């Protein structure tokens, strides 16, 4: 859903495409002959999970994180491994309510890959009763996602800290710092 998307800005792409595997090879085949062929399939969709830990006095008052990621590949020519134009993808953040990560916010998407010069998380943090007023959210994931297009067979989980949620009516932009890859079962992925 491209809510709030203005004409002339990057298009939004599906944030949960089905799993997609490809195999390409050119072969010459003669008539009336059998040819054994083993097709080693290559996974072309990779799952990305972002886990955000809010800090500050207003952290518990967060009701919604509305965000999207720029620099997602909208198309892929799998014969040449060429990614299409950079698009946006909605990050469906939900609050984790159970386990060791209760209180953190999580979004999972599946992407063909990343493309373009940068991948930015952009959005807004909204609070209970509109107090404080919504905060602009921006974070640069370019470095953290630079190897995303390789090793698509494994999902990638990144965790970051949301710093300086505003106190009272003070409104500053919030940023997520220190994106780090989470290995193994450090994050409860069932929520």
List the helices and strands and how they pair.
Blueprint: E1 12-13, E2 21-22, E3 42-43, E4 46-54, E5 62-73, E6 76-77, E7 82-83, E8 86-92, E9 94-95, E10 105-111, E11 120-127, E12 135-140, E13 156-163, E14 174-181
Parallel strand pairs: 1-8, 4-13, 12-14
Antiparallel strand pairs: 2-3, 4-10, 5-8, 5-11, 6-7, 9-10, 11-12, 13-14
Primary descriptors:
single chain, 191 residues, Immunoglobulin-like, two-stranded antiparallel sheet, 14 strands, 40% strand, disordered N terminus, disordered C terminus
Please summarize what this structure is:
The protein is an all-beta fold and 191 residues long. The chain contains no helices and 14 strands.
Tell me about this structure.
The structure is a single chain. The protein is an all-beta fold. It has a single domain (about 45-180), classed as Immunoglobulin-like (Sandwich), CATH 2.60.40. About 0% of the residues lie in helices and about 40% in strands. It is built from no helices and 14 strands. The protein has strands spanning about 10-15, 20, 40-45, 45-55, 60-75, 75, 80-85, 85-90, 95, 105-110, 120-125, 135-140, 155-165, 175-180. The strands form 3 sheets. A 10-stranded mixed beta sheet has the order 1-8-5-11-12-14-13-4-10-9, with no helix packed on it. The protein is elongated.
